[in-house]
Write a structure and sequence with these properties.
single chain; Multidrug-efflux Transporter Regulator, Chain: A, Domain 2; eight-stranded mixed β-sheet; three-stranded antiparallel β-sheet; elongated; binds S-adenosylmethionine; coiled coil; SAM-dependent_MTases_sf
Length: about 375
């Protein structure tokens, strides 16, 4: 038998709490001849059980019902689900700390941080001395920080001569434009790159176009290249994560192969504010085209594009961000080739001059992955209207 003070010590609860529990009928002390209350082993066990149930998320009332075998299964099922979520979160925090301590590869740390806090991840990379463009790239590449200068130099050497920065084709851009259900008077293009879509938008619409990219050099070149459309197209160096425009400024926002940089779902949410009511967002994104991708493909994209998902998941995200889906379609196989064929040729041409280049190795890995695409992944166009 235990006195109340002994019982309190054993379970770490105060006398007041125990008396309250007694009042609720959770424990049952017996008054002894000497006037003290005494508690049995059964009381001790009940208290230990209550504590476990409480840390599983049950209220005192639910604990009592549990002890009396009267608890509703539905309540237990709900608590179990919550508990599973908490455990998963704790596991994630544990992995994060383990990666920081060097017990897991740093790549895991980047991937994890990117999932939980993409903006903080970018901020952190910038604080490490990366330009925003490089930080955005590193975000996906998660490479060894110490070699990043060489890495970037090699990367630009390969890409600078190419006409495209990602899969896509003029025909697919025009198909998407044909599906836009409004006559846009103002267009914002985000991540305009080399201006391929920009030119088509200028040719095919009567809109005033603002095209932004955070690559100042590319913007300078575009300004010169678009002399003929100077009254219609304005280029600006800006970051897609911090766009210098007021709400409801545009009828149409266009972003091919770029939204992934800040996270497509994030882009859906943030860019919506810039659209006028009934405005349209056109975004393209890399998606899984099958439920059963090959292991190799899964492995490749899980590190290169951890946020990659399916068309139906992106549609669900777009709907919950406040859009209706006008249409969606995968870009053609030819559009993939337009990007990867010249890239393969360029790598083959410069490879010998860049021995041991990690950038070359990474691009070759990407080319290998593309060679096994076999309809496993698509570049999907989404035409969405602000609901
Ligand atoms: C894969 S390319 C796509 C370019 C073009 N839309 C196309 O389809 O060819 C991604 C573009 O996003 C730009 N970019 C990267 N980070 C950015 C940011 N934070 N804000 C704006 N543009 C960014 C890059 O400079 C690059 O031009």
């Amino acid at each position: 038998m235990y006195r109340i003070s002994q019982l309190g010590e054993l379970v770490g609860l105060s006398r007041t709490t125990l008396l309250y529990y007694e009042k609720l009928g959770l424990i049952n002390g017996k008054r002894m001849d000497n006037g003290y209350r005494a508690y049995s082993d059964m009381d001790l066990q009940r208290l230990r059980l209550i504590q476990q149930l409480q840390s599983g998320g049950l209220t005192l009332k639910e604990c009592k019902a549990c002890l009396e075998a009267k608890v509703e299964r539905q309540i237990l099922a709900e608590r179990l689900k919550q508990l599973d979520q908490e455990i998963a979160q704790k596991q994630q925090s544990r992995d994060l700390l383990a990666a920081l301590l060097g017990e897991k590869p740093l790549t895991d740390w980047h991937e994890m941080l990117d999932k939980v806090a993409p903006d903080a991840h970018i901020d952190w990379l910038i604080k490490q001395g990366f330009s925003e463009t490089d930080a955005q790239r590193l975000r996906w590449l998660s490479k060894d920080m110490n070699t990043h200068d060489t890495y970037m130099a090699d990367f630009y050497r390969i890409f600078d001569v190419l006409e495209r920065r990602g899969p896509g084709s003029k025909a697919d851009t025009l198909t998407a434009l044909g599906k836009v259900p409004i006559d846009a008077k103002t267009i914002l293009e985000i991540g305009c790159g080399l201006g391929i879509a920009t030119r088509l938008l200028a040719e095919q619409s009567s809109a005033q176009i603002t095209a932004i990219d955070n690559d100042q050099e590319a913007i300078n070149e575009l300004q010169a290249k678009f002399d003929d459309y100077a009254d219609k197209v304005r280029f600006e160096c800006a970051s897609m994560t911090d766009l210098p425009f007021t709400e409801q400024s545009f009828d149409l926002i266009w972003s091919e192969g770029s939204a992934y940089i800040m996270g497509v779902n994030n882009a859906f949410k943030q860019w919506r504010n810039l659209l006028k009511d009934g405005g349209v967002l056109v975004v393209s994104d890399l998606v899984w085209a099958t439920d059963k991708p090959s292991e190799a493909s899964q492995l490749f994209w899980s590190s290169e594009y951890p946020d990659m998902t399916t068309v139906s998941e992106r549609i669900a995200q777009a709907k919950s961000a406040g859009y209706q889906v006008v249409d969606t379609f995968p870009i053609s196989d030819a559009a993939w080739d337009e990007y990867y064929r010249p890239l393969a040729l360029q790598v083959a041409a410069v490879k010998a001059e860049m021995p041991n280049s990690q950038a070359v190795k990474d691009i070759e890995r990407e080319l290998e992955n593309y060679a096994q695409r076999n309809q496993q992944f698509d570049y999907q166009m989404f035409i969405l209207v602000k609901a």
